[in-house]
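ok trying again, last paste got cut off:
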Amino acid sequence: MEDKIISTEELAALLGKKPKTLYNWMNKGVPMPPSYRIPGVRGSRFLMSEVMAWIKKFAVPQAGAPAAPTEAPRRGRPRSAHNVAEVKS
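nice, full thing came through this time. structure:
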């Protein structure tokens, strides 16, 4: 099976970023998957297998079920008598 070659724009769409962000990362030296320059083709190209391996390096292992979100205390002045009672108790 041949490895799919994707463009910077396709990589950006895969990551949910704008292509400009990826170009900035490349210029700043942010670790990126290996890129290839193909003669006669504008821009860098990436091998999908190397992109997926790069993404897996940053995966955070999840232990068990995700924790239920807790409601943060509200900030600011209470707006109603009900909220005032909550704050005092």
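cool. The chain has four helices and three strands. Helices lie at 8-15, 19-28, 48-57, 81-88.
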